[in-house]
Specification:
66% of the residues lie in helices and 0% in strands. Helix 6 crosses helix 9 and helix 8 crosses helix 9. It is built from 11 helices and no strands.
Length: 189
């Protein structure tokens, strides 16, 4: 049945991404890819190294289908961040706290995300923001599914706490009643 397709599906699938394709992706998605590197590494210099290493790896001639090049670029940035930071499920000490006072919910989330222990931050970004399957996350992070679930719950709880304590949330509470969405272990898992 698939062999009789006449819509060019197989022709498109066999087209590999070129150096020019990856150059265009890293140029167009530069802000997103750098944000991803910075969020994962928690350090601007490491984020730059991660971004550049990701770009160099992509243009080194990986045989990736053209349609997969954008997601491959994100994955390479994540894998380089893992190599640089080496997040471990056994190290759950909090990151250095940023002394910024967020003014909005988005800023509160960003500050809370940067204050997560590295392993929890990687789990949250990879599984929730990037949509990686638990098995894929566990494989890339070299951890168990249980460690992954525990880290995601801890991270979600810390993010919710940060939002509750943010000045923007306090202003919302002062101005009108606000119904908080609960996140329990079942939803986080």
């Amino acid at each position: 049945m698939l062999l009789n397709r006449r819509d060019g599906f197989f022709d498109r699938a066999l087209e590999y991404a070129s150096i020019q394709d990856f150059c265009a992706i890293f140029h167009q998605d530069m802000n997103v890819l750098f944000w991803l590197a910075l969020t994962l590494t928690g350090d601007e210099r490491q984020a730059e190294r991660c971004f550049i290493a990701g770009f160099e790896e992509c243009i080194a001639g990986n045989a990736v289908f053209k349609d997969w090049a954008r997601s491959w670029s994100r994955r390479v940035v994540i894998k380089n961040a893992i190599r640089l930071v080496r997040p471990s499920a056994t190290d759950i000490t909090p990151a250095i706290h940023v002394l910024a006072k967020p003014g909005s919910h988005a800023q509160a989330v960003q500050v809370a995300l940067s204050n997560l222990p590295p392993f929890d931050r990687f789990v949250l970004v990879m599984s929730v923001l990037e949509g990686y399957a638990d098995l894929d996350c566990a494989t890339l992070l070299n951890c168990s599914a249980t460690d992954l679930i525990k880290a995601r719950v801890r991270a979600a709880q810390q993010i919710l706490r940060a939002i509750d304590l943010s000045p923007a949330m306090q202003e919302d509470h002062d101005s009108e009643p606000h119904q908080r969405v609960a996140l329990n272990d079942a939803h986080a898992a």
